[in-house]
């Protein structure tokens, strides 16, 4: 069995999520992919079993916020259905702004309903002209009589149309670059807020990815998160804590695909023996398992550091590494799982082709893996390792 740092109580929560995933979500996964409809029944299951509570502290309606357990829950669910794993990851992504920068009044107003799952959350940063270069955003927020008036639009927003609470980034000072961006909470029933096109896509098909528009959308000043101009910093602090969640989605996909390929390799026979006994297949399975276990070590370490209060450069680097490594492993391992199953791997009757399609997005969103590499290298270049060169030359 894999070595993990979980306490007995944490293992109990993991086992509860694992059982729900295997018994209630796995049988739905192929249908969610085929219908491309948002799985409200899975949200209901999470609500009934207090799964969203794992993300929030008791004071705000949760069961005791734990980054590590959030990652474990996303991983367990993503082993069987990456669309459903993403529901947990995005509840965290869309709530982190409130958790990190919200006033006590804002936390009391929003967090309990997010902790129970009555409301779903979303994070709206990307625009048509600004993805990797998020500071190039054009959405504006103009102050007017104790309110802000938002105008503009966001694209590729997960949970568009199903979320009630959107963490939105907009320019309060369009000429001030990064420091002209502010963060806001926008509720979906606010006049002037509209959901546009929902995108058909390659994988995670049950998750909605869509446009949202702000047309003279007026929100109270009380919905601004942090100070004016602090939005970009808040957006990045959120990503430092949410990117590991995408790593967990990737790891779940990789482990789920490995587990499936392993079982298949015991029963499919060629040339007189199960394919798992052919050395080339056995070696693939060994590499897949090793990659998953190594990725898990990095991911759980990152979760533990967040729970211990890590912040700043240390967190930025390890969270980018966890996201990068787990999601690259997801793409490699799910592709290998298709190979292990041979032609059957390519057929929709078997889950590994879906897992391979689902894995691709994990290398793209919450910062592409090129951007993760830039972030990691930037942090490395700031570090002083000159001592390693002592005595050299
Ligand atoms: C299904 C889905 C769900 C999403 N959910 C959300 C969400 O909930 N909220 C949200 O705000 N956004 C969301 N996104 C947006 C996502 O985060 C962006 O698509 C992603 O950050 C990349 O931006 P882009 O698509 O504009 O690509 P671009 O920025 O145009 O990049 C194109 C290519 O150039 C590379 N590149 C760009 N700049 C550099 C550089 N400096 N150095 C090296 N390479 C570079 C990129 O890695 C990429 O390969 C989602 C996207 C998808 C597809």
In terms of topology, how is this protein built?
Layout: H1 8-35, H2 40-48, H3 67-78, H4 82-101, H5 104-116, E1 121-124, E2 140-144, E3 147-158, E4 165-171, E5 181-187, E6 193-198, E7 209-220, E8 224-225, H6 231-267, E9 269-270, E10 273-274, H7 279-307, H8 312-341, H9 352-362, H10 369-382
Parallel strand pairs: 1-4
Antiparallel strand pairs: 2-3, 3-7, 4-5, 5-8, 6-7, 9-10
The site of flavin-adenine dinucleotide has 20 residues, from strand 1, strand 3 and helix 10.
How would you summarize this macromolecular structure in one to three sentences?
The protein has ten helices and ten strands. With 393 residues, it is α+β, with helices and mostly antiparallel strands. The chain has a four-stranded mixed beta sheet with strand order 1-4-5-8. Strands 2-3-7-6 form a four-stranded antiparallel beta sheet, with no helix packed on it. The protein has a two-stranded antiparallel ribbon with strand order 9-10.
In terms of quaternary structure, the protein is single chain
What is the general shape?
globular
Q: What is the alpha-carbon Rg in Å?
A: 21 Å
Low-confidence stretches: none
> How confident is the prediction overall: mean pLDDT?
96
The bound ligands are: flavin-adenine dinucleotide
Q: How do the helices and strands follow one another from N- to C-terminus?
A: HHHHHEEEEEEEEHEEHHHH
State the helix count: 10
> Sheet bearing the most strands, described?
4 strands, mixed
The computed structural class is alpha+beta
Counted beta strands:
10
Q: Approximately what portion of the residues adopt beta-strand conformation?
A: 15-25%
Straight-line N-to-C gap: 46 Å
Approximate helicity band: 40-55%
Output the strand order for the largest sheet. 1-4-5-8
């Amino acid at each position: 069995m894999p070595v993990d740092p979980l306490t007995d109580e944490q293992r109990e929560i993991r086992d509860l999520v694992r059982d729900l995933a295997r018994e209630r979500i796995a049988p739905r996964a192929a249908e969610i992919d085929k219908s491309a409809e948002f799985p409200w029944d899975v949200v209901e299951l999470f609500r009934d079993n207090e799964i969203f509570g794992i993300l929030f502290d008791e004071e705000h309606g949760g069961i005791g916020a734990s980054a590590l357990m959030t990652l474990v829950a996303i991983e367990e669910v993503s082993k069987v259905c990456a669309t459903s794993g993403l529901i947990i990851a995005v509840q965290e992504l869309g709530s982190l702004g409130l958790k990190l920068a919200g006033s006590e009044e804002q936390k009391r107003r929003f967090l309990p309903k997010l902790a129970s799952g009555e409301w779903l959350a979303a994070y709206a940063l990307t625009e048509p002209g600004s993805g990797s270069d998020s500071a190039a955003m054009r959405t504006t927020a103009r102050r007017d009589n104790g309110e802000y008036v938002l105008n503009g639009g966001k694209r590729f927003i997960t949970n568009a149309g199903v979320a009630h609470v959107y963490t939105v980034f907009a320019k309060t000072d369009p000429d001030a670059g990064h420091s002209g961006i502010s963060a806001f909470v926008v509720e979906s029933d606010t006049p002037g807020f509209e959901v546009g096109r929902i995108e058909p896509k390659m994988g995670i098909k049950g998750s909605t990815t869509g446009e949202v528009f702000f047309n003279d959308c007026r929100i109270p000043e009380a919905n601004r998160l942090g100070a004016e101009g602090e939005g970009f910093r808040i957006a990045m602090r959120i990503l430092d804590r949410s990117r590991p969640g995408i790593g967990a989605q990737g790891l779940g996909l990789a482990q789920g695909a490995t587990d499936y390929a392993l079982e298949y390799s015991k029963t499919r026979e060629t040339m007189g023996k199960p394919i798992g006994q052919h050395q080339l297949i056995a070696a693939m399975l060994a590499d897949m398992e090793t990659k998953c276990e190594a990725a898990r070590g990095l991911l759980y370490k990152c979760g533990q550091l967040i729970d211990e209060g890590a912040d700043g450069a240390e967190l930025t680097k390890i969270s980018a590494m966890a996201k990068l490594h787990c999601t690259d492993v997801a793409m490699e391992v799910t592709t290998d799982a298709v190979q292990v199953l041979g032609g059957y791997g390519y057929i929709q009757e078997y889950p590994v082709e879906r897992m391979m399609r689902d894995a691709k997005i994990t290398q793209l969103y919450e910062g592409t893996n090129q951007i993760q590499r830039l972030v990691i290298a930037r942090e490395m270049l700031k570090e002083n390792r000159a001592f390693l060169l002592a005595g050299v030359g």
